[in-house]
């Protein structure tokens, strides 16, 4: 019923885009076709290449206008492409424009947007007017020709007009879905540029995380392990004093000091193990097959684990998968209210897939403050992706997929 109501309705922005988009589509399509036609005619002349350069710059600007319209009226945010570099020299700048994939894709968008714009205006304006005329056809025919008996054609025209009119909002929604996909495909940054941005963001995130980890490690070593070792050194010094007093060794005091030193040594070793575990878990030396069961055993929520590791991934990939699993299990324990969870890891065909499912309250999402955004950024650094499916009321399924080998 909800899907039916959604089909039978369209937002105001979608209607506005279908109507206001027509002049923009005519302007952009006419510009693109004229630029392509004139560029082909002038290609063998001196002004051919300069004309194409100017036309491509204009296509970029018109693409920005359409990107704004799609975001404003359809609610579809399309990331703006990077600005063109400005090398020294006219010829170098012209070469940059001519080889700019964003400008050529914007030109293609303007050509394809033209028929979509005309079709959208026809559906939003012409089709409802035609349906109104068809539904009121029996009335018009009687106003023009006097009294006339009702026929089955009158009933068909009314029903047909109302049926087609009820389908108009669904057609608007479907057409604007095509407009959204077209804008995402052609008005955003080129795939290579987008990949560079993702890697730069992931690298900055990893550098910041590594810096924070190093500072935290330095603080823990200074405030924890170093203090324990200093206390141990003091205890051993006191024990040395107890061995050679003027009246002979004080065995009782010496035994107490040695017991204290043994306890301080154990505490220092435990502290060092805790710190090194955060750098590289010792369990990973045997691979994910040995590390993950130990990780799930420490979870306060019962976890069923399923492993299908036909091949061993790269060590860096193993470390990313391990810490993703640890973060997701921590999220389940802290935020989900789940009674049970399931962790599945498979490695085959040079891909590693980690999925964690719980029966908690749901509602998890990227950017919702549960660490999922940080996980997505870490996965992006190794060309991985994170998908979250967590409807309110649960269950929650988080899937991380990444290559088994780093290239």
Could you list some keywords that capture this structure?
407 residues, Heat Shock Protein 90, 5 strands, 68% helix, elongated, membrane, transferase, kinase activity, EC 2.7.13.3, two-component regulatory system
Architecture overview:
This protein is an alpha+beta fold. The chain has 3 domains: 2-186, no CATH class; 192-279; 283-403, Histidine kinase-like ATPase, C-terminal domain (Heat Shock Protein 90), CATH 3.30.565.10. The chain is 68% helix and 9% strand. It is built from 12 helices and 5 strands. It has helices spanning 2-7, 12-42, 48-73, 90-98, 101-135, 137-145, 152-186, 191-243, 251-279, 288-297, 315-336, 372-381, and strands at 303-309, 341-348, 351-358, 385-389, 396-403. A 5-stranded mixed beta sheet has the order 1-2-3-5-4. Strand 4 and strand 5 (396-403) form a beta hairpin. Helix 3 (48-73) crosses helix 5 (101-135), helix 10 runs parallel beside helix 11 and helix 11 (315-336) packs antiparallel against helix 12. It is elongated, with a radius of gyration of 34 Å. The two termini are 49 Å apart. Mean pLDDT is 77; it is low at 1-8. The chain crosses the membrane at residues 12-34, 40-59, 114-135, 155-175. GO terms for molecular function: kinase activity. It catalyses: ATP + protein L-histidine = ADP + protein N-phospho-L-histidine. This is histidine kinase.
């Amino acid at each position: 019923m909800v899907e039916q109501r959604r089909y039978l309705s369209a937002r105001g922005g979608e209607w506005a885009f279908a109507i206001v988009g027509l002049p923009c589509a005519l302007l952009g399509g006419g510009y693109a076709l004229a630029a392509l036609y004139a560029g082909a005619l002038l290609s063998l002349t001196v002004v051919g290449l300069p004309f194409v350069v100017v036309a491509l710059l204009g296509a970029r600007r018109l693409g920005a206008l359409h990107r704004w319209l799609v975001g404003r009226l359809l609610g579809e945010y399309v990331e703006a492409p990077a600005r063109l570099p400005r090398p020294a020299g006219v010829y170098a700048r012209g070469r940059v424009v001519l080889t700019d994939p964003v400008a050529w894709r914007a030109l293609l968008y303007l050509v394809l947007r033209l028929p979509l714009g005309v079709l959208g205006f026809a559906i939003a304006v012409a089709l409802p007017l035609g349906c109104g005329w068809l539904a009121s056809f029996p009335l018009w025919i009687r106003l023009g020709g006097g009294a006339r008996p009702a026929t089955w054609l009158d009933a068909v025209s009314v029903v047909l007009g109302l049926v087609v009119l009820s389908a108009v909002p669904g057609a608007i929604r479907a057409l604007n879905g095509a407009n959204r996909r077209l804008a995402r495909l052609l008005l955003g940054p080129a795939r290579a540029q987008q990949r560079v941005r993702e890697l730069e963001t992931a690298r900055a995130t990893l550098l910041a995380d590594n810096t924070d980890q190093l500072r935290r490690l330095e603080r823990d070593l200074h405030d924890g392990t170093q203090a324990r070792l200093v206390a141990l050194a003091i205890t051993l010094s006191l024990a040395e004093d107890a061995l050679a007093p003027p009246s002979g060794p004080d065995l009782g005091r010496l035994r107490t000091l040695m017991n204290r030193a043994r306890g301080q040594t154990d505490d220092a070793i435990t502290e060092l193990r805790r710190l090194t575990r955060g750098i590289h878990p010792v369990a990973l030396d045997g691979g994910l097959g040995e590390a993950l069961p130990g990780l799930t055993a420490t979870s306060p929520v019962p976890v069923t684990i399923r492993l299908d590791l036909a091949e061993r991934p790269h060590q860096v990939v193993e470390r990313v998968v391990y810490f993703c699993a640890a973060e997701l299990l921590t999220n389940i324990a802290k935020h989900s209210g789940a009674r049970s969870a399931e962790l599945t890891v498979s490695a085959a065909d040079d891909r590693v897939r980690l999925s964690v499912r719980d029966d908690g309250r749901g509602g998890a999402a990227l950017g919702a403050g549960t660490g999922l955004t940080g996980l997505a950024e870490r996965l992006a650094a190794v060309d991985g992706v994170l998908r979250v499916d967590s409807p309110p009321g649960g269950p929650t399924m988080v899937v991380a997929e990444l290559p088994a080998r780093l290239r």
